[in-house]
Amino acid sequence: MELKPLKGQHHVSAITKSATKNYDFYTKLLGMRLVKKTVNQDETSMYHLFYADERGNPGTDLTFFEIRNAGRTYPGTNSISLTTLRVPTDESLDYWKDRFKEFKVDHDEITKMNGRKALFFRDFEEQRLALISDEKNTGVSGGRPWANSPVPQEHGIIGLGPVMLTVANLAPTKQILTQLLGYRESGKYGLSGSDGEVMVFETGEGGNGAELHVLVRADLPRERAGRGSVHHVAFRVESEEELRKWVTLLKQNRIPNTGFVERYYFRSLYFREPNGILFELATDGPGFEGDEDFEHLGERLALPPYFEDQREEIEARLEPLDTKD
What we know:
Layout: E1 9-16, H1 19-29, E2 33-40, E3 43-52, E4 61-66, E5 79-87, H2 90-102, E6 111-113, E7 116-122, E8 128-133, E9 159-167, H3 170-180, E10 184-190, E11 197-202, E12 211-216, E13 230-237, H4 240-252, E14 261-262, E15 266-272, E16 278-286, H5 311-317
Parallel strand pairs: 1-4, 5-8, 9-12, 13-16
Antiparallel strand pairs: 1-13, 2-3, 3-4, 5-9, 6-7, 7-8, 10-11, 11-12, 14-15, 15-16
C-alpha cells in the first residue's frame, strides 16, 4: 500500500474560556477571519471557532473550543507547547511588534527560530504563540489574508507555521514521526530563553507550513491542560481515499485510533503518539463553503446536516456570540 506524504499542518485546535474575548483577539487584533462558527461535534454544548485566511484554506486554520469552566494551564512536557503563525516578511514582524505595543499584547523581542525571524507573544489566556517570517521560507505556500481584515494584507497572517511539541523522551515520538508518518529529520537548533535542544522534522514540500519542532525537556513535569493550552494538531491528507489508507496502516500497526471520522468540512482520523500528544489526520476538503457562501463565512452558527434537527436545543445551550461586525 503506497501512501502519499502528509502535506504539512492542517489546523491546530486550542482551548479558550471565553468565545467572545477569543473572537475579539483573533479577528480584531490579529486580523484573522472567522471562517466557521460551529460546535464541537463530540460535545455540542461548546463552540468550535475556526480562524484562518480569507476562505479557510487547509494549513491556515487556528481553531478553539470554548470550555467555560477551563482552569489555568500548567505548562510542561507531553504537550503541543507553541503554535506559530506565518507572516510574509521580516518587515512584517516590525509592524506586529508596534501593533502589540499599541494593544498591550504580552510579547518578546524579535528573535530567530530555526534561522527565520520570529516574534513570540501570548494572548489574553497565555496561549503560547509566535509569528514567523516567510521571507526566507521555501516549501508549502501560505494562504491569502482576508481583504476586510484590520491588518494590512502585506503584513497579514498567511497560515500556520511550525508547531512545537515538548516531550521528555524524544525516541518514541521521533519513531512515530519518521517511521510511521514519513517525516524526515532536517536539523536542530537552540531556542532562545529555553534549555534543551529543538529537533526539526519536515514532511512533503517542507518549509514553515510543513515542519514539526520537538523540544526535549526531561526536567519538566507533564503539562496540565486548561485555557490557553493546545488540544491537538492536525496534518494534511490530500483526499478521503488517502485517509482511508491511513486508517488501514494504523490498524496494521496496532496503533489505537478513532478510525474514519466524518467532520463534514473535512474527514479525520485521531490517535495519540507514545508521549500522549493527540494527532489528527484531516483531508484538505470539502472546505467551509458547503453551508455558507464566501462573503458570509462565520456569520451564523453553522451546523453539519446531521445536527440540523438539533439546532434549537444546541443554540439554547450556547451563549450568544455576535460575529457579524
